[in-house]
Amino acid sequence: MKIYMMRFLTVFSAIFMISCNNGNNENIIVEDQNPVALQEKSSLARFSKPGGNLVDALYQELVEKKPELNSLETELNNFATEANKTQNIFYNYNEKSQHFYEDATFLANQIKDSVTQIKILEIIKLSSDKYDQQSKELNRLVEKIANNQKSINDNHTILKLLLTIPIIEKFQEDNLPKNKDFQKVIVKQEQLNRKILEKTPN
Question: Which among 6, 27, 152 is positioned nearest to 78, based on CA atoms?
Answer without folding.
Answer: 152
